[in-house]
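Re: the request from the purification team.
They wanted to know what the chain is likely to look like in 3D before they choose a buffer screen. I agreed to run a prediction and write the result into the notebook, where they can find it.
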Amino acid sequence: MKQDFFVVIPARFDSARLPGKPLLDIGGCPLLWHVYQAAVKSNATDVIIATDDKRIEAAAKEFADKVVRTAKAHQSGTDRIAEAVTLLGLSDDCIIVNVQGDQLDLPPALINQVANNLAGKKAAAIASLYMPIQSTAELNNPNTVKVVADHQGYALFFSRSPIPWKEPEEPGAGQAAHGQYRHIGIYAYTCEFLKIYAGLPVCELERTERLEQLRALYHGFKIHVEQAKEKTGLEINAPEDLELANKLYGN
């Protein structure tokens, strides 16, 4: 059964490696435009962009029906979305899917999948997705977030380091990819949980790893993850990702 949900895309201007990332040109359109187009092709009831920056707000209003201006001080995209749903007056039981503003060519089917995942897991505060890691380079890349889960699919931990650790077959060898998983940065939660999350103290694990989902785990909330049913596209995290995207789009 189709699950009703809203998509909110958090988009901030400040980025250490790619300043103004949502406005970067890919194939003649801003990165944020590409993300929005994927979201509107999903089953979402509505798609909202939440930003802290007037430049992003102005650009987004050229193609998006709903753009919400939020505070700059938020610790994470989830905190930004929590403010946005409050400003929009959405009810506590609404399911919100966080589609991050750097997810280029995200299949709309994955947006639907994560919403349905949350709806079917009453013990979960958050639902998300993962994919098998395909290479040693991917495993050892700190921009690739790794996840381990229990036998029911509830996340045990997320890290930028290779997890779980596996003893190299040869002395002195590094970690090689085998049976490890990368987290896909798409989340589903209810408005009720978003309000709870925004009131939780930021923990040291979140600061150290720079991963907002660790705040929820640290405070005892469950995150259910399942394997994505389609390939995910390209996350624009670093200059080399932008270079690849420009090649794909003929820039």
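For the purification team: The mean pLDDT is 92.
Please add any questions underneath this entry.
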